[in-house]
Amino acid sequence: MLVPFLLLLAAAGAHPSSLSRTRIRVTGALAEVELSFQALSLLEARPDLERTRDGFLDADEAAAARDAIGTYLLEHVRLVRVAGGREEPLSGQVLSLTPQDPAQVPVLDLQNVEARLRFEAPGPLEVLVLESLLFHETNPWHQDLTTLVWNDDAPVHHTFEGPETRWRFEPAHVRRPAVVAHALWLGVEHVLGLDLVAFVLVLLASARRARALAGLVTALAAAEALTLVLSAYGVVSVPVRFVALAVALAIAYVACDVLLRREARDAWLEAACFGLLHGLGFAGFLGKELAGEPLLASALFGFVVGVELALLAVAAAGVALAALVFRGRRVPEGAATGLVPRAVRLAVAVVVALAGFYGFLARAGWLPWR
């Protein structure tokens, strides 16, 4: 029965492979907890529970110490209900405690103990905090592999390890508004980046009418959303460095095209192609930002909406500024003179083209970059 080996481990201190598994099933106001832990971990934390000093917890010892073990488990596995911004600890009870038969423990293995706990809240649970302090008195490196099943949602996994003893869980229907809002703000910040601002400036300078500009911006956002979603779900994957170089060249190309044309025009194809390309480039950052996010579809929706709203806001601000500066200028009906005078259009095209070429050379490593 490996008695000398186990006694040596107990004398030397806590064993380094201390491990437990916790499965929590929430149904309305009820939370049922199934625990599986090593008897040796319990006996290291509470050596007074063992009578035979053999490193095992037999049925008689478990029955005699049932209340003490139950008290220990309820003190070290805590469920806290969050309602109205306040935390309310849930009272629990031990339903069963079943040690593995020592005779059935394989050689070089450790005995397991199964326990079932039950917690009940005064009303349906919305947000839950789980505190796991199992065996931390003697095993600060103890690991607890936790699985939480919330009503009909898919199981969610979490590992308690080292100093981490507290996990706040918010189910999908609670987290969704926060996830969408966070991703929406990410989309707004994304539009404020240099690449998109430069490209929108070119679209503004070359567009013939404000309505056409709004359509161009929408086409840009829709195309970007398409490749962003495809990249987020692993359908397409393009090296980030290649995309960054291609984006800079695309900005320079469109600016040069505007520079070489005498009349304003609505660059529908360029807007859509740039959106496709830029969506691939931003997928890498967004993937890191939302790594492990179970509500990926909600997050992508919020991000796309944020991009569209911010692009329209930038375009509207540009149109308003152009109308204010050039309000005395008369535009014949049907003329392709554009939203801004030709001199302004050419000046914007020159600046953006230079910025695009500089961005390409800098990203290639030939010039300094921020």
Can you give keywords for this protein?
single chain, 370 residues, alpha+beta, 2 domains, six-stranded mixed sheet, four-stranded antiparallel sheet, 19% strand, disordered N terminus
Oligomer: single chain
Give unreliable regions as ranges: 1-12, 330-336
Helix content: 40-55%
Distance between the termini: 66 Å
What features would you describe in this structure?
- By secondary structure, this protein is of the alpha+beta class.
- The chain has 2 domains: 3-170, no CATH class; 177-363, no CATH class.
- It contains 11 helices and 10 strands.
- The protein has helices at residues 3-12, 39-45, 59-64, 66-76, 172-191, 194-206, 210-232, 240-260, 268-289, 296-325, 342-363, and strands at residues 19-27, 30-38, 77-83, 86-89, 92-99, 112-120, 127-132, 143-150, 156-161, 166-169.
- The strands form 2 sheets. It has a 6-stranded mixed sheet with strand order 5-6-2-1-8-9. Strands 4-3-7-10 form a 4-stranded antiparallel sheet.
- A hairpin with a 2-residue loop joins β3 (77-83) and β4.
- It starts with a helix and ends in a 7-residue tail after the last helix.
- The relative contact order is 0.11.
Short description:
This protein is α+β, with helices and mostly antiparallel strands and 370 residues long. Helix content is 50%, strand content 19%.
Write the topology of this structure.
Blueprint: H1 3-12, E1 19-27, E2 30-38, H2 39-45, H3 59-64, H4 66-76, E3 77-83, E4 86-89, E5 92-99, E6 112-120, E7 127-132, E8 143-150, E9 156-161, E10 166-169, H5 172-191, H6 194-206, H7 210-232, H8 240-260, H9 268-289, H10 296-325, H11 342-363
Parallel strand pairs: 1-8
Antiparallel strand pairs: 1-2, 2-6, 3-4, 3-7, 5-6, 7-10, 8-9
Helix pairs in contact: 5-10, 6-8, 6-10, 6-11, 7-9, 7-10, 8-9, 8-11
